[in-house]
Amino acid sequence: MVEKNYLLLTPGPLTTSEEVKQAMDFDYCTWDDDYKKITQSFRHSLLDVAQVNDEEYTAVPIQGSGTYGVESVISSTISDDDTLLIAMNGAYGKRIGEMADIYGINHVDLVVDERQPITLEEVTRCLDANPGVTHFAMIHCETTTGILNPIEDIIPYVSGRGITTIVDAMSSFGGIPIDVKANKIDYLISSSNKCIQGVPGFSFVIARKEVLENTKGMARTLSLDLYGQYIEMERNNGKWRFTSPTHVVHAFYEALKELKEEGGVEARHQRYTNNQKHLAKGMEELGFKVLIDEKFQSPIITSFIYPTDDFDFHAFYQQLKSDGFVIYPGKISQVPTFRIGNIGEVYDEDITKLLLAIKEITG
Description:
By secondary structure, the protein is α/β, with parallel strands linked by helices.
C-alpha cells in the first residue's frame, strides 16, 4: 500500500523538498573522510546561521530528536551544586523540569499561563527571590500554543547576573533570526527537522566554548555527554562518538544549502511570517479564533480555538488529511484548540489551497 502524499502543517517533522529527500539516497560510512567533511561543513554552517564565529562557539550534533539535545545540555552541563531556573509557559518548558527531576538537579520553576509570554519582570522577581540560581532555561517558540517568548529581552539580562543561559530554540532556529552572541546565549538547542527543513534524526547545540569546556566530567550519562561529543569531533575531524544518522546528515547538508539559496534566515522568516498572517486572517474569516494575541504570535505554528462546543476535531482532521493536509491537535487544557503549522516547504499558494479545503469542509 502506497500512502498518499500530503502537506505536513506541523511544527516538525515537516514537508521537505525533493532535493532533501534525494540526498538520502546514498549510503555513507561513518569513518569515511568525505562523510566527516560533511559533518564539519554543516557544523560551520550552523555557526553562520547563529551569527557567531568558531573561535568563541561550537556546534555539537547529538544523535536523536530535539528532546535528546535538550536533555544532553540539562544532564551534562549542570552540576549537583548548581540550581536551574526554568521558565515555563507550555509543555516543553515543563519537559525540562521533568529532566531536572530525573537527574536530581536542583531547580526552581517559574510557571506562567500558557497563553501569555514569559516576561523580564517575572524572571527578575524570581531571580531576586532565588539568589542561588546558577543556570537559566527557557523556550523561544513554545509550540504548545505558538507563542514567541522574548529571549532578546530576558537572556542578556540573566547573563549579566553571571548566570549560564540555555535557550530551547527547537522550533525557531533557522526560521527566526537569532544573534546568539548579542543575546548572550551560552547554549542554544535545535534539531534537524525544524526550520532548517531537514528530516528527523539528530539535534544540535550551539555552545559557547569557554562555558562548555568547563563542564568536563559533569555528564550523568554516556551517550548524552555534550562535552564528550564535542571533544571527539574536535580531535577526529567530525567523527561522531557513536553511530550517526548518515542519511539524515546528508539531507541536512542539502537543507542548509537550500536555506542559503532562499536568502538565509531573513528570507525564510519572511516567508513563514507571510504564511502565518495569511493563515490567521483566512481562518478568522472562516469563524476560527486565534488563541494567542497577535503581538506574541510566532510565525511557526498557530493555535485556533474550536468554533463551537460540538466541533469534532477528529472528523475535521480526517477530512483535511483526505484533502492532502495534516494538522496538529491542541496541547493545552484551559481551552479546546487545534494547531496549524506553516514551516517547511509551504508557500502562500499552499495556504490558499488549505483555506479553500477548510471552507468546503465547514460549509
